[in-house]
Amino acid sequence: MDNQKGALFPDEVILQILARLPVKSLFRFKSVCKSWYRLPSDKYFTNLFNQVSVKEQLLVADVSDSSSLICVDSLRGVTELSLGFLRDRVRIRVSCNGLLCCSSVPQKGVYYVCNPSTREFRKLPRSRERPVTRFVPDGEATLVGLACDLNRNKFNVVLAGYHRSFGQRPDGSFICLVFDSETNKWRKFVSAVEEYSFTHMGKNQAVFVNGILHWLMSGLCYILTFDVEHDVWRKISLPDEIRCGNGGNRVYLLESDGFLSVVQLSDGWIKIWKMIEYETETWSVVDSISLRCIKGLVPGIFPICQTGEYVFLATYKQVLVYNRRSKLWKEMFSLKGSYSLPLWFSAYAFRSTILPCN
């Protein structure tokens, strides 16, 4: 960006300021001058913007039968996003680093990856494996994962589940389809694995850390992982205190500032674990949060995302944010009127990036 004669600030200072704006404001300011118009497509600036924004965690939730979403920011409050640009009725399957993977409701087997902040999207090509007929029990993949690499500006979509050949009974094999945004193609491999089971939240809280996707298995015995680059499945252990249901509490898998994290809920406390050493699978308790102030909401509260400073939680009709420094709770959003599904059912971690997807 060329520094204008008599400018008040150096170019780098201006870029640092612009990198801290919401995406909507950044695109609105494109009309200021030619150099600002080019910023959203400038590689240096997009990397800078994403490095800043990836530190800020947001929550998005589908709150109606339309294509509108709410976006909850601990600092800026609640704004609205829309998926109307997809021109299809979709449901969000998974979120990662500013991109959403959505499946078409009327057309099974049709998937989109979109950036609701920039309104860019890509309709994924159909796999030759005809996933509608090859996944059981309901024709859809058991696991859907989205792995977005901000450094390389690429993403992968993972569809995995138990397999059956068309017109035949399930044969017990676990099929995995991986879409690569660079080649615009799917690749496939089949594994003979033990039977995996997952809760609704376990399936939908796919966590991408260290280039690997993670899902929490039901029964709380292990975390199932998938290495996107090497097509390798493996299991890693939970903390001993909660492994195989030893803690007797609800447990959720999240990400925390680039680390894998487990959030454990009891009647009176939230205990937050972080995997401080990934190679040795070493866990440590990093925070304990009293639930005394919201005791009546505890049975229906679910953690959705977190940073070192905030924890976002959803109830049936509310979004709450806990400030870990001040130890204060704040209601950020409350759903008015009737809605058939609880908010936590359709709430996802989100980051506002300008990662391209088309």
From TrEMBL:
F-box domain location: 3-52
SUPFAM superfamilies: F-box domain, Galactose oxidase, central domain
Family annotation (InterPro entries): F-box-assoc_dom_typ1, F-box-assoc_interact_dom, F-box-like_dom_sf, F-box_dom, Gal_Oxase/kelch_b-propeller, SCF_F-box_component
Membrane-spanning residues: none
Name of the protein this chain belongs to: F-box protein At5g49610-like
This protein's encoding gene: LOC104724054
